[in-house]
Amino acid sequence: MFSNLLVFEFILDKISKKLKVVLMLTVALPKGRIAKETLEIFETIFGDSFRFDDRKLILETPKFRFLLVRNQDVATYVYHQAADIGVVGLDTLEEQGLDVVRLLDLRRGICKVAIGMKKGEKLDLTKPELKVASKMVNITKRYFEERAVSVEIIKLYGSIELAPLIGLADMIVDIVQTGTTMKQNGLEVVEDIMSSSTYLIANKNSYIAKKDEVLDIYEKIRDVIQKENRT
Ligand code: PRP
After folding, report:
1. Which atom of ligand 1 is nearest to the CA of 161?
2. Distance (Å, rounded) from C-alpha 153 to C-alpha 169?
3. What top-level class would CATH report for the domain 111-196?
4. Sequence-ordered strand ranges (E) for 91-206
5. Where in the chain is the domain with CATH 3.40.190.10?
6. Is-above-0.70 flag for pTM?
7. Which residues line ligand 1 (CB under 6 A)?
8. Ligand 1 center to 135 CA (angstroms)
9. 4-47 residue pLDDT tens
């Protein structure tokens, strides 16, 4: 079934090359700042305006169809080929573990995943019955498993910094960008787990079936990022 699909996509690729057809790419973007910054990159590349109308979730241009989705849903759209490419944080990719192609670090949305505790407290992994609150349960689970430490992970969906303050957990595993949220809530980082930034990702089949289009936009975005980092 899968190999038939690959053969079909290979043939489609050959036909489109012969006919010089440019296939449209569907791009999943996470609502908010990352979508805005990504569309600005497209504006830099093509010299056109790329803006969603008011509350619309689809933006169509001759070459691209942009979808505005929740950050946690970007890789899902790409994995299921509802989008050919997408833009999402490395932390989310690591947490979800979906099999997509990681094409390029866009060097935006730079943050880290870290362990936070109440100011002055020390991380002591030998303590029994440690409780860890996080919205990133898989990253948390992996971190403690690799150290052979048994912890209870409490899944939360937001305002993670609250958990140690009211005794729900001993520590948190959370995103730290500016560090302001932890600081203002009397917490501090006691251990870094991973660095993260925004990545351009692609669906594995689209990477074959629409190789020219995917590589073309990849190279154009890469050039913009490289230029930014030279200036
Ligand atoms: C994220 C994260 C921290 C905060 C870190 O929360 O979970 O709470 O940002 O940013 P800072 O280091 O710049 O203060 P988000 O804003 O996504 O809200 P949430 O509490 O709903 O998860």
Report:
1. 8
2. 9
3. alpha beta
4. 101-105, 111-118, 130-134, 151-155, 171-176, 187-196, 198-202
5. 19-109+197-230, 111-196
6. yes
7. 158-161, 174-181
8. 11
9. 767 777 776 666 666 667 789 999 999 999 999 999 999 999 99
